Amino acid sequence: xxxxxxxxxxxxxxxxxxxxxxxxxxxxxxxxxxxTMAAASQGLTDQSLTFFDAxxxxxxxxxxxxxxxxxxxLSDYELHQLELLQHINFRLFESAYLQYKRGFYEDRxxxxxxxxxxxxxxxxxxxxxxxxxxxxxxTDEFSAEVExxxxx
Length: 152
Description:
Layout lengths: L1 H52 L4 H13 L5 H26 L5 H17 L1 H9 L6 H12 L1
Helix pairs in contact: 1-3, 2-3, 3-4, 3-5
């Protein structure tokens, strides 16, 4: 009788151990899947950034930023380069937003990005023009986030 009872407890303990192990395995698979999705998303963002970066002329951008701050008139090409720079900037913001929504950034980290985006939309005409020209080229969630910042 004592052996029977011991065997039942051992069996129960083993079964509980199997269940805990399966739960842990499910958790690990979920974490691995999330990390894979984040890496794939980052890879796509990197490809997009490489494409846009190839079109940037750093000398023109540097001079255009200076001229814009001085209030000097910019050529069409300089304006184009500044918009392209902002497109790259906002692709990075969108990537950060998606990583935030997936739980890879803390709230305070995303709040820092929100402040930068709000400042860009309030003070940088190139950012505003780029944003208005690229409507529909962003995820719906990120678009809604930026639009909410524009309204404030």
